[in-house]
Amino acid sequence: MGSDIQSVLDDIFFNLKIIDYSCLLLWRVMREKISKYISTRFNAVSAIQLFQLVRYGILFLIGIVLVKAGVAKADIGYYEQFLFLAGAVSFFWINGFIKGFLSLHNSAKSGIQLFNAFIALQLFAVLGAGALAATKDTLFPILLSDHSFSNVTLLVVYVVLTAPASLVEYILYLKDKSKELVGYGIWAYGIQLIAIGMAAFAQLDVEKLLLILVATGVLRYGYLLWLLAKHGKFQFDSEFLKDCLNRSWPLIAAALLSGSAQYIDGFIITSRFSAEEFAIFRYGARELPLALLLANSFSNAMVAKVNTEKPQSEVLQEIYQGSKRLIYTLFPMSLVLALLSHQLFKLFFNPDFAESATIFNIYLLLVVSRLVFPQAVLIGLGHTKLIMRASFWELMLNVTLSLLLVRTMGVSGVALATVIAYWFEKLYLSFRLRKDTGIALQQIVPLGSWLIGSLILCAVVYVIEWM
Q: How many domains are contained in the chain?
C-alpha cells in the first residue's frame, strides 16, 4: 500500500501545478476588495456564516459545472460517492469534537488548546481513514449497489488531509480574523471550482477530477499548519485533552446518530438503486443553501458565547436576535425556491435531473427545525449527554420512517422521514431546555414569526408536490 500512497502523492503534487495559476489570479483580484468590505461590515460571527455560505455555494456550483461540462452521469455519481464515503467516516467526530472544543476554549490558554485540538483531530482522521482501508472489501459492496468504487488509496489520503483542516475556520473565528476567514473560504474553494471546472471542460476522466480535489485539500492542510505555527503553542496538555474528550464524546455520538440521517438516506438509496439514480438523489437532497450553513455556524458561535463570562440574559438575547434575523431571511428564500425549484433544476442542470427538484423541496422543510437553537444553550451549559439522547431517538425515528415511506413514496419518502425526525429532535430539546434549565423557547426564538413562517412553507410545499 506504501507504493500506492507514494504514487497518489506524486499525482497530487503534479495537479497542484494545474491550480497554481488559478490560486494567484483569484487571490490578486479579490484580496483588496474583500479586505476593505469585510473590515467594515462583518464581525466574527457573521464572517463564519459567510465563510460557510461561500464554501457551500462553490461546492454547489461545482455540481452544476460537472453537468454543464458534459461529464457522464455515472462519473458524477462516482465523484459524489467519493465525497459521500469521505464524509461518512468523518462528519460525526469533526462536528462533535469541535463543539466540545468551543465550549471549553479559554482565550488565555488558546495556543496550547489549538495545538491539542489539532492532535486529536489528526488522530481521528488517521483512524477514520484506516477504517475505510480495512473495510473496503466488506463494507463497500454492501453500501454501493454497483460495487465499482476503486480509489480507496486516494480516499484515505483525502480524509487524512482534509478532516483536520476543518479546524482552520474556527482558529480564525476564535482569533477574530474576519477578513482572513472569508478570504480563506474564497481562495480555498474558489481554486477548487476553477481547477475542477477546467478539468471537466477539458474532458479529463473522473480520476483526474478526484486528484485535483485532493490537491486542493493539500493546500488547506498546509494553511492549517501555518496557522498553528503562528497561533498555536506546541505543548501537549493531557488534562485539556481529557476534559475536551469527556465533553465531546456525547456530542460525537450525537452527531453520529443525528447527522448520520443523511448517510442512512444515502445507504438506502445506494443499496437499492444505481449510481445514476444516486446522483439524482444527492443533487436534490440539499437544504436551502443558507439554512444549514448560517444556522449551524451561528449555533457553534453561540456555544462559545454561552461559555464566556457574559450574563446569561445577554447571551439569550443575542441568540433571540440572531434567530429573528435568520427567520426573516430564510423563510422568504425557502418560499421562493420552493416555487421555482422545478424550473431552476432544469435550467442549472438538465432534464435528466428534474426529479431532484421534488427531493429538494422536501428538504427545504428542514429550515423549520434549523431556526431554533436549544442545542446551543444546552451544549454551552454542559448538557451534552442530553444532546446524545435526543439524537438517538431522532435516528430511530428516521430509520423507521425511511424504511416505511420508501415503500410507498420511493426516494421522496426517505427525504420526508428525515424532515420529520429533525422536527422531533428540536421539539424534544426545547422541552428539556425548559425542564432542566428553566429557559423557555420564547427566550431564544420569536415564536409567533417562526410558527407563521413554518405553516406557510409547509402549505406551499404540499400544494406544489402533492396537489
A: 2
